[in-house]
């Protein structure tokens, strides 16, 4: 029997109980929510809405990043019968204000990064949502009667117009997509059991219907986990996929292309790029198992569980699809719009059609008009657009929804996307030119990082103009276009081109190039008029972090003197630039950049291969940990008390405290860890990982080639012993410390305590040196209690060249644990911790 509403579908959340529904990286930690917890918090949120007088048909504005709290708010509204108005987290305040007025929002659920007070709407913050509703009952909520016709959400599809247009999506619209998928998925569930749970890494915003489909509706059918991340840096994604044992990546094409470039960059760094390209060519005609074996090194890097990529939000370039297919991964494409509740067609995961956007979805009627435009009708098509207190029909008078997209029907009923009808360029000769065909030819040319083709209006007609993002802006654009033209028909050839002046195109929230803004810049440039739409994205990011207006930000502006960028501001700027431009920047080169212009030059440079610093997870293996404890109690612990039995004070401060925790201490000698291990209670001592000078560890692991043979052997043996016996991990001084902090978060997630020496060096005179500001960043983003420790005595022993001392000569003082909020500045936290250690 068909479900009557999503309220019935929500019952699946409780059925999966303790299985993990959502995981999200917060700071350096991974937070996990079970299906049961999501269900209970949603019931609490529904009661919160009831108490606030938000009832059936009232709108709740949901303006936040992907998170479990987002899902809680969505499902709480579903249970209450309220309407969700989701907007992308990067939307402007002006746009959010217009949407709030359109839907007459009664409540705003937002993250701390938004600016809700200016909306003049009661609000709850996602970061403290659970605490705000904790007093409510978690018992199942008795929902008001809801039918398939009732509206669930209003999704606004435009963030640029003065009057945004919202698509009113009903329970029936969503269920019409869920039910065929559920029926097909259940045929294969017995094959899923050996791989359970499946894990989706979703990089699509929940404010978009396709992101919701995967995270909120398909995952519960499978009992799968949806993983959210804050950063979309390719290098971090490649680390996240194996670490979280991801099965399927869900992303927009641009991110999938970025991952492709990252893999190629890694292969190039290993000196195997030529062989890799030859293998790609050979793999084209090979069977799956042969392709998989040929590229087993890539599968090892991404994890053996990772097998598929789902592309959504835009058309995936054929070259990118081919790349991943040849590596042995399934690339699943579909097609749909917000008005069709995300799906019109879909490729079956086990019956893929390369280059196709799939077969028409069950329950959807589709036809193409004489121009090739896709027309659809069915229950999945939204009935209305929302305009204030009025609803306007989505479909035309003939009952068909005109998508505005063009396609061809191929063999076996597969659709092949041709582009947007409104983007078709009609030449003076009356020929239709599809930009996607031209863009494909351009992307096949070396040196083209990205491109779009727009139509330049000429006397009522248009001619195609290539807009190029080049790896090297001084490259010969004319030659690139000429080579691309050779692969095109005469009527398709481009005779106009434009090299984009910025580092990247302006983009929509789903990372599509913003064609309207691009066309404005090109039109103004070709007409010799200044453009108001070509502000550098780099300048926008710098301005956001510095708080200065774009008009006052010159390329020659100095980052330190004129913009007052602190060291931590630089960390934030570097992270923002890496995420925006999907690159990995060298810490050392970034630190050397003194002006805005030098930053732009750094971003234009191709990333140089970097030596990989290894973060050893094997050292936390149960067998290695057991061996480490045996050696400690047989050798290290007796030696500590025989040579200089330490006097330990302050252990009572740790009563009732359970790990994991962040342990910090002043640094006097290379063997300080021995005194700290002796001082800590067993519950901390047995699960302690220590940060060590990263560059030193890297040299020990891979000694320089000029070193003598036995010296290299000794260094490598020393590396193995220090990692195995003291569970150390690298903390670089020069570059890469953010990756080290991320590994520290991974250790904490797995229940390990972390020992760190915030001075970054042994004291030259026995006095406490200034704490590095990175400890403040780590303390606030790990969300762990910090245990301050002070050592006295080891420096004097070292200075006197003694290895023994009377009992009590070495003193270890343990302070009271302290925990810091993410709202506190890292600088202030570092100074506070330095003071606490000094006062012990």
Q: Supply the CATH architecture of one domain.
A: 3-Layer(aba) Sandwich
- Count of distinct strands: 33
Major sheet characteristics:
13 strands, mixed
How would you write the strand order of the largest sheet? Answer: 2-1-10-9-11-12-13-14-15-21-20-17-16
Pick out the low-confidence regions.
528-535
What is Rg? 29 Å
Question: What percent of the residues sit in helical stretches (DSSP H or I)?
Answer: 25-40%
Distance between the termini: 69 Å
Number of helices: 31
CATH topology title of one domain: Glycerol-3-phosphate (1)-acyltransferase
Shape: globular
The fraction of residues assigned to DSSP E strands is 15-25%
Mean pLDDT: 84
- The CATH C-level name of one domain is Alpha Beta
Could you characterize the architecture of this molecule?
Helix content is 38%, strand content 19%. With 840 residues, it is of the alpha/beta class. Among the domains are: 426-526, ANL, C-terminal domain (GMP Synthetase, Chain A, domain 3, 2-Layer Sandwich), CATH 3.30.300; 537-604, Non-ribosomal Peptide Synthetase Peptidyl Carrier Protein, Chain A (Orthogonal Bundle), CATH 1.10.1200.10; 618-838, Glycerol-3-phosphate (1)-acyltransferase (3-Layer(aba) Sandwich), CATH 3.40.1130. Helix 4 links the parallel strand 3 (59-63) and strand 4 (83-87). Helix 7 (171-186) crosses helix 9, helix 10 (234-243) packs across helix 11 and helix 26 packs across helix 27. The longest helix has 23 residues, at 622-644. The protein is globular and about 95 Å long.
């Amino acid at each position: 029997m068909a479900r009557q509403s999503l309220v019935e579908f929500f019952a699946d959340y409780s059925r999966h109980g303790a299985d993990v529904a959502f995981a999200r990286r917060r700071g350096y930690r991974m937070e996990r929510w079970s299906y049961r917890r999501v269900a209970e918090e949603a019931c609490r949120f529904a009661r919160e809405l009831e108490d606030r007088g938000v009832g059936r048909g009232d709108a709740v504005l949901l303006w936040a990043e992907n998170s479990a709290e987002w899902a809680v708010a969505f499902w709480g509204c579903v249970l209450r019968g309220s309407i969700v108005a989701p907007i992308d987290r990067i939307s402007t305040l002006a746009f959010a204000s217009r949407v709030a007025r359109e839907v007459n929002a009664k409540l705003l659920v937002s993250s701390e990064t938004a600016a809700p007070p200016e909306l003049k709407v009661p609000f709850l913050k996602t970061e403290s949502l659970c605490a705000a509703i904790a007093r409510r009952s978690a018992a199942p909520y008795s929902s008001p009667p809801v039918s398939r016709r009732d509206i669930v959400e209003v999704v606004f599809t435009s963030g640029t117009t003065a009057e945004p247009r919202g698509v009113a999506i009903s329970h029936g619209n969503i269920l019409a997509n869920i039910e065929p998928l559920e029926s097909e998925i259940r045929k294969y569930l017995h094959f899923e059991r050996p791989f359970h749970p499946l894990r989706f890494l979703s990089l699509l915003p929940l404010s978009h219907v396709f992101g919701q489909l995967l995270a909120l509706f398909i995952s519960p059918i499978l009992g799968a986990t949806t993983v959210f991340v804050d950063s979309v840096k390719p290098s971090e994604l490649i680390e996240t996929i194996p670490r979280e044992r991801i099965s399927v990546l869900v992303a927009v094409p641009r991110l999938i292309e970025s991952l492709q470039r990252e893999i190629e960059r890694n292969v190039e760094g290993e000196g195997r790029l030529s062989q890799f390209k030859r293998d790609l060519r050979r793999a084209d005609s090979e069977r799956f198992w042969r392709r998989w074996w040929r590229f087993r090194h890539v599968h090892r890097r991404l994890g053996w569980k990772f097998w598929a990529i789902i592309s959504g939000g835009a058309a995936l370039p054929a070259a990118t699809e081919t790349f991943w297919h040849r590596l042995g991964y399934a690339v699943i494409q579909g097609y749909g719009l917000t008005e069709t509740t995300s799906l019109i067609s879909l490729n079956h995961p086990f019956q893929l059609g390369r280059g196709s956007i799939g077969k028409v979805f069950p329950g959807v009627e589709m036809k193409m008009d004489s121009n090739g435009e896709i027309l659809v009708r069915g229950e999945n098509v939204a009935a209305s657009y929302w305009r204030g207190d009025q609803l306007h029909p989505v479909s035309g008078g003939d009952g068909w929804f005109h998508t505005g997209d063009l396609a061809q029907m191929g063999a076996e009923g597969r659709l092949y996307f041709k582009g947007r009808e409104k983007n078709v360029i009609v030449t003076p000769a009356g020929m239709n030119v599809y930009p996607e065909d031209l863009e494909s030819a351009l992307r096949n040319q070396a040196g083209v990082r990205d491109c779009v083709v727009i139509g330049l209006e000429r006397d009522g007609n248009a001619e195609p103009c290539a807009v190029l993002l080049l790896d090297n802006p001084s490259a010969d654009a004319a030659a690139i276009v000429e080579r691309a033209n050779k692969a095109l028909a005469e009527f398709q050839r481009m005779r106009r081109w434009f090299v984009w002046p910025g580092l990247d195109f302006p983009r929509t929230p789903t990372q599509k190039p913003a064609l309207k803004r691009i066309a404005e810049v090109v039109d103004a440039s070709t007409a010799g008029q200044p453009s108001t739409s070509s502000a550098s994205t780099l300048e926008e990011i710098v301005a956001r972090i510095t708080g200065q207006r774009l008009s006052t930000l010159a390329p020659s502006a100095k980052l330190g003197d004129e913009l007052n960028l602190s060291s931590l501001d630089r960390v934030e700027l570097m992270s923002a630039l890496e995420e925006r431009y999907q690159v990995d920047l060298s810490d050392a080169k970034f630190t050397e950049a003194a002006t805005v212009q030098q930053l732009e030059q750094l971003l234009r440079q191709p990333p140089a291969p970097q030596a990989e610093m290894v973060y050893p997870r094997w050292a936390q293996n149960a067998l290695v940990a057991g061996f480490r404890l045996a050696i400690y109690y047989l050798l290290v612990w007796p030696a500590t008390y025989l040579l200089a039995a330490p006097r330990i004070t302050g252990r009572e401060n740790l009563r009732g405290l359970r790990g994991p925790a962040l342990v910090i201490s002043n640094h006097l000698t290379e063997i300080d860890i021995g005194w700290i291990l002796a001082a800590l209670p067993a519950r901390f001592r047995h699960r302690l990982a220590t940060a060590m000078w990263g560059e030193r560890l890297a040299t020990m692991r891979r000694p320089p080639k000029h070193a003598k043979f036995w010296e290299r052997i000794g260094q490598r043996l020393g590396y193995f012993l220090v990692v195995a016996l003291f569970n150390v991990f690298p903390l670089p001084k020069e570059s890469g410390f953010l990756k080290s902090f991320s590994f520290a978060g991974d250790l904490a997630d797995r229940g390990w305590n972390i020992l760190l020496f915030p001075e970054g060096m042994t004291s030259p005179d026995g006095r406490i040196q200034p704490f590095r500001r990175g400890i403040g960043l780590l303390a606030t983003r790990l969300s762990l209690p910090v245990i301050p420790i002070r050592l006295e005595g080891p420096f004097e022993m070292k200075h006197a060249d003694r290895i023994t001392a009377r009992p009590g000569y070495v003193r270890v003082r343990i302070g009271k644990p302290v925990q810091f909020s993410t709202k506190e500045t890292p600088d202030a936290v570092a100074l506070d911790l330095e003071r606490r250690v000094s006062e012990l």
